[in-house]
Amino acid sequence: MRILFWGSPEFALPSLEVVAGHHELVGVVTQPDRPAGRGRQLRECAVKRAAAGLDVPVLQPERARGSEFMDAVARLRPELSIVAAYGQLLLDEVLALPPGGSINVHASLLPELRGAAPINWAIIRGYGQSGVTIMRMVREMDAGPILHQLSEPIGPATTAGELSDRLSVLGAEALREVLERLQDGGLEEREQDHERATYAPKLNRELARLDWTRPADEVACWMRGCDPWPAAWSELRGATIQLFAPSLPGPEEHARRDASADAEPGTVLEADPRQGLLVAAGSGVVRVGQVKPAGRARMDAAAWVRGRGARSGDRFR
Hints:
By secondary structure, the protein is of the alpha/beta class. It has three domains: 1-100, Rossmann fold, CATH 3.40.50.170; 106-160 and 174-202, Rossmann fold (3-Layer(aba) Sandwich), CATH 3.40.50.170; 216-306, Formyl transferase, C-terminal domain (Methionyl-tRNA Fmet Formyltransferase, Chain A, domain 2). It is built from nine helices and 15 strands. It has helices at residues 13-22, 46-51, 67-76, 92-95, 118-124, 160-184, 216-225, 251-259, 301-306; strands at 2-7, 24-29, 34-36, 41-43, 58-59, 80-84, 102-106, 129-136, 146-153, 233-236, 239-247, 268-272, 276-280, 285-293, 299-300. The strands form three sheets. It has a seven-stranded mixed β-sheet with strand order 5-2-1-6-7-8-9, with helices on both faces. Strands 10, 11, 12, 13, 14 and 15 form a six-stranded antiparallel β-sheet that branches. 42% of the residues are buried.
């Protein structure tokens, strides 16, 4: 089968490997190189770097539309498009160009968590399970018929980065099964229950600012769901601090929070040079395991405390 692959970040790499290893990969469409890092040097995305060793055309349109781009795709004569975290919404004419249409590797159990950041929001909202869906693409975002789904548990300490790694591999496994069934003619499509649809909008830095008035378990979910990006953060004495690796303490430490019931949410109840930070939430407490002060590397919170980074009585805002 002649397949045109669309993708950009590392999440898409296992799916690209499935296509390149078992089918005729006729080309790759990926995002343009973007400035990154302190020097703002142009940086290639993960899929472009991987495609460099595959000896296929690589297209990097600013927008995947227009006669010039459509002509370039048509010359590749794809029978099917596969999209995995490409990063743009595709027009109907783009989706329908291959005779077999376009299918997508989506990192949620649709119809839940349609949108740009399903992995992050699954953790932020406290889900115990996520997964991947292979679906046929239609004009409406993530609303097409389901071809295959596989589930994956979310543990109490799972971060968005860890879940993304697992779902990228699971997505490739699900894609391999779908492509085999497509060739055998034994693939059934199932319409989504659109009334059950929920959404996972794109995250940004402002959304990642922690609200310490939330219950402790919700604050912890925000930290894990924004790890490693966009990174949950708060201000402390006017400086921006990113916070990671939360845990919910046991009854003894909760008793300490009860004894400090007049403490405002965000107050550092304990700055221990061995155990790190214990911070008051709207209800309950959160132990913060790692921090990243502005301009410094990510480090254990205990090491930051030893370096006089925080003191008991300080307050995150």
